Amino acid sequence: MDDGSPNESEMKRTAEKLAGSENISIKYLGNSHAGPAAARNYGVRSSSGRIICFLDDDSIPDKSWLSEIVKPFRNSDSIALVSGKTLSYDRKASLPLLLEKTVYSGKCWATCNIAYRRDAFEALGGFDESFTEPSWEDNDLGIRAKWAGYIHVYNKQAVVYHPHEKSIEEYKKKCLLNGRGAAVFSRKHLLKKPLWGIATPIVMSRHLIYGILPSVWRAKTINETYLKFLWSFYSLQGFWRAMIGKKHAKN
Description:
This protein is an alpha/beta fold and about 250 residues long. Helix content is about 45%, strand content about 15%.
């Protein structure tokens, strides 16, 4: 599924080449900058499989990923979604590895490594297309699945390698993006699920306390507490700017 990428022709050629050489059905689909939620929904509508598996365009799945991500569905018809283990693509750089072990270790609904049973996905209404940026549209769907009582299984054998941020400046931008997505989620559920709407910024602020620690500011190398503090600080900044309608600069 291509949401208006600049290398459309290259992607089409790659899809055609794979379709001709592999014993699988490959279909190239194009969309026009509608956002990841809308693009994924379009892709699902254009598919026919009983199990829908998601990857991000910058992610590299392990060779056994597809067989592993669908394995739990074969064991039980009651399972509605399966997520796998996401590792940093860059295994040598210190910052991506530290982010893998700390800030990103608890992510469980990321679309770079997840699969839904079609009937559950459709019953939930798919991704909410009011999330126009790549932020929180996957959390929103996963949380709604949890509220609906669907069974979610984690399979650590379903491995995907994802590029994490390589610099603090890049990481700060990711935190701001996270905050903007959280603002969409909070506004959406504030009336029907007020505790969730109110709790979202409170949960995001939990690492601000690290800002009082001298070790956070005086450390010679980037450490876990510093990264968590930045996550709270810049996520909240993105959240409140989005809540008051302040536009953000395009990268």
